[in-house]
Design goal:
heterodimer, A: alpha/beta, abc type-2 transporter like fold, 2 domains, B: alpha/beta, Rossmann fold, 10 helices
């Protein structure tokens, strides 16, 4: 144990003595949170949409068909009451719910006016804004058609928009979870793989191997400081996003922290795995960037919604661990859901962690070559 | 005297290259055993097998009575190893480096201070300096201190004097001699011939083969022929001219002179006149005593030829 603590102490000395490490550890997260506070716009394709039709008449049928027949949306389900809306969103497939008010058809004929509510999921502000704009356009188009066939200009369906979960549509709400996901995989995987390969490159690994230190002690000694620092980092990001953007954690903070630890562990084991296959620091860095950073940014749903991707990327993204963590962290932070809604993702992360640890312990060599 | 290392028929290849071919030797307790050979001779590979870092393809090696393959865990507690590149953490200070290695081996600086005091006292004034900022000689002393801190029974040093100035090299060998009083067996490799004479026993190694193992003085005596040292102003011209001399058996540059063996008795006069005819000015030729390097070059030549 004393040996192990001596090793951990040495690792901390390495970290604190190298200002570049410190910048990566604490400078980048802060910068990214601030930079990503400004959203990036994306396109909508096949977004899941649910209908709550309280009127069930010819006009609502027509409008539903018009909306669904566009390429932008696909119907996920028909809801029966207002109580179903929240449930539909939490399932994750539905990005918006269209609500037709009671007796919409007859009201429209009698008063020439009726309203449709568009309820969107504000935890994905880009998607929400785009869906709103597209539905507006479709409804306006529908109004024009109706008026042309009816021969007067008095009929008007008025769309009303309501955001759930993120009523003010603050876009940085979705970037905070994204940045946490990205930063953790960057620090944990990149830093651990680099620090282990550094020992190989400088020849100190030779002496460590000849010492009575067990491989598991070397690995844990390398990993422990980064585990602590990463966790500290998450807390810094959460506090900062709360202070700067006023973003609260809607769900259970304890659950969020526990699952974050799981994700950190997963990333660290991935880092160890990378170090066992790379001989130089450069190689480790290259694998981390190409193999982890890019997929995390591009394929995890961090910036580009997965449902808009071609199917093939959807499948590829299934082996990208951050994809699952993004769902978990968004659900807890923004929707406030509990473990019941994210147990699948949690399980996948658990299995991935076990797999990576298993493989890296097996691959870690007690000898050179 | 007890045998500490016993190697029988060790072979190791990397792809097509056969790095070690049938290496056998024994090392006695408290000896300084030197492996002398040029770069690429296989010294580092041999040391890595010795320190359990690599597996031999054929043959067995026991160190301190333990097999280097099966007993590696136990063996690693008793080996002090200093790899060719000084394995120091450049961003840690002198003292932090030493402390780290001490804790890793489950000991403290205090506990074994008497063992390293001779060496460490040279660098102790700089203990707060970063290891990366030390000179070659000081790095070497620190690396040696780190390798010794856990009082190993056997110390393996891979080219410890490469890249170190002459004064530090001489000091270093004096320190090694002193370690013998602590019953530490030392195995050391070096590309420098002059260091061979300081070992108790040396093995000449080239292309993965041991050419000779003996006390350095005996190896030197193995040189059976008469050796002449030839000097002239223009060494290169002299060397070319001597190669042309019909009775020349072998010739190689040695320091500021050229060493020569010939197939005739008392060649001084005829060599001199041949050289003058070839346009070499003021040649001098004297009988000289062969050094270990001469023997090594002779062995290399017979091996290659």
């Amino acid at each position: 144990m004393k040996r192990f603590l001596g090793f951990v102490k040495k690792e901390f000395l390495h970290i604190f003595r190298d200002y570049r490490t410190l910048i990566i550890l604490f400078g980048i997260p802060v910068a990214q949170i601030l930079i990503f506070g400004f959203a990036v716009s994306t396109e909508i394709k096949n977004a899941g949409i649910a209908f709550l039709d309280l009127s069930h008449d010819e006009i609502t049928q027509k409008l539903t068909n018009k909306i669904v027949s566009s390429d932008f949306f696909r119907k996920t389900e028909d809801l029966l009451s207002y109580n179903d809306i929240d449930r539909a969103f939490k399932k994750g497939m539905t990005k918006a719910v269209i609500v037709y008010e009671r007796d919409l058809g007859s009201k429209l004929m009698k008063e020439g006016k009726a309203s449709v509510s568009i309820i969107t999921d504000g935890s994905e502000p880009n998607v929400a804004t785009l869906i709103t704009n597209y539905t507006f356009a479709i409804i306006n188009d529908f109004n024009r058609d109706m008026n042309r066939t009816a021969g007067n200009n008095s009929i008007l369906i008025q769309p009303e928009v309501k955001m759930l979960y993120n009523p003010e549509l603050k876009s940085h709400f979705m970037f905070v979870p994204g940045v946490i996901t990205l930063i953790l995989i960057l620090i944990c995987a990149l830093m651990t793989s680099v620090t282990i390969t550094r020992e190989k490159e400088f020849g100190t690994m030779e002496v460590l191997l000849v010492s009575p230190l067990k491989p598991i002690q070397i690995i844990l000694g390398k990993v422990a400081p980064y585990f602590l620092l990463s966790f500290l980092n998450v807390i810094v990001i959460l506090v900062m996003s709360w202070l700067v953007f006023g973003l609260p954690v809607k769900g259970s903070l304890a659950l969020l922290l526990v699952l974050t630890m799981l994700y950190i562990l997963m990333s660290l084991s991935l880092g160890i795995l990378i170090s066992t296959v790379s001989k130089t620091m450069q190689q480790a860095m290259f694998i981390s960037f190409i193999g982890l950073m890019l997929p995390t940014i591009l394929l995890s749903g961090f910036i580009y919604p997965i449902e808009n991707m071609p199917k093939i990327y959807d499948y590829v993204s299934m082996i990208v661990p951050p994809r699952y963590f993004i769902i978990i962290i968004k659900s807890i932070m923004i929707k406030g859901t509990g473990i019941l809604f994210i147990w699948k993702e949690t399980l996948i992360l658990l299995l991935m962690t076990a797999l990576f640890i298993g493989v890296s312990v097996r691959k870690f060599k007690v000898r050179l070559q | 005297m007890q045998t500490v290392v016993e190697s029988t028929g060790i072979c190791k290849s990397f792809g097509e290259t056969r790095a070690l071919k049938n290496i056998s030797f024994t090392v006695d307790e408290s000896d300084i055993f030197g492996f002398i050979g040029p770069d690429g001779a296989g010294k580092t590979t041999l040391f890595r097998i010795l320190t359990t870092l690599m597996l031999p393809e054929e043959g067995t090696m026991t160190v301190l009575g333990l097999d280097t393959v099966k007993g590696f865990k136990e063996l690693r507690k008793n080996i002090g190893y200093m790899p060719g590149r000084f394995s120091l953490y450049q961003d840690l200070t002198v003292e932090e480096n030493l402390k780290f290695y001490a804790t890793v081996f489950g000991t403290s600086i205090k506990e074994n201070y008497d063992l390293i005091s001779d060496i460490y006292s040279h660098i102790e004034p700089f203990k707060d300096k970063l290891a990366g900022k030390l000179s070659g000689g000081m790095k070497q002393k620190l690396a040696l201190s780190c390798a010794l801190i856990h009082k190993p029974k056997i110390l393996v040093l891979d080219e410890p004097t490469t890249g170190v100035d002459a004064v530090s090299r001489a000091e270093f060998w004096i320190m090694l001699k002193k370690l013998r009083d602590h019953k530490i067996t030392i195995i050391v490799s070096t590309p420098y011939m002059d260091e061979a004479m300081r070992c108790d026993k040396v093995a000449l190694i080239q292309n993965g083969t041991i050419l000779a193992i003996n006390q350095p003085i005996k190896i030197k005596e193995g040189f059976s022929r008469k050796l002449y040292s030839v000097k002239a102003d223009e060494k290169y011209k002299l060397l070319l001219a001597l190669k042309k001399y019909p009775k020349t058996s072998s010739v190689w540059p040695f320091g500021d002179s050229v060493h020569l063996t010939v197939n005739e008795e008392d060649p001084e006069e005829s060599v001199k006149s041949f050289l003058e005819k070839e346009g070499v000015k003021y040649p001098e030729i004297n009988l000289t005593e062969a050094g270990i390097e001469d023997r090594f070059l002779e062995l290399m030549k017979s091996e290659n030829g």
